[in-house]
Amino acid sequence: MDLQLPPKVTPRAFARLAEINAAGGGGAKALRVAVEGGGCSGFQYDIRLDDPAPDDLVLEAGGQKVLVDPVSLPFLQNAVIDFSEELIGARFVIENPNASSSCGCGTSFSL
């Protein structure tokens, strides 16, 4: 049986989430990372601020939480959730070893 590991969240991603929550002023929100059908490659990531649901996997560091729902979890096994800042913009990114290909924008992928 192949041992599957949950996704990992980098310290940089947790730090950026802490900055977002500090600037928000309305109480800390968790970062939800989900996989949905669609996008130019078949699946797409949905990354947003949200509240935890009872069946979510919660990844936590320094009081910050990243959530993955049970339906998305198999698609995100062994993935790395990071934050990237480049000249063209800043965003949360996912390095997903389960994806066989992805589009140029990095928000959709295929298995």
TrEMBL record:
It comes from the Bacteria. It holds the Pfam family Fe-S_biosyn. One of its GO terms (biological process) is iron-sulfur cluster assembly. Transmembrane segments: none annotated. Coiled coil: none annotated. One of its GO terms (molecular function) is iron ion binding. Residues 8-106 form the Core domain. PROSITE patterns: HESB. NCBIfam families: iron-sulfur cluster assembly accessory protein. This is Iron-sulfur cluster assembly accessory protein. It comes from Frigidibacter mobilis.
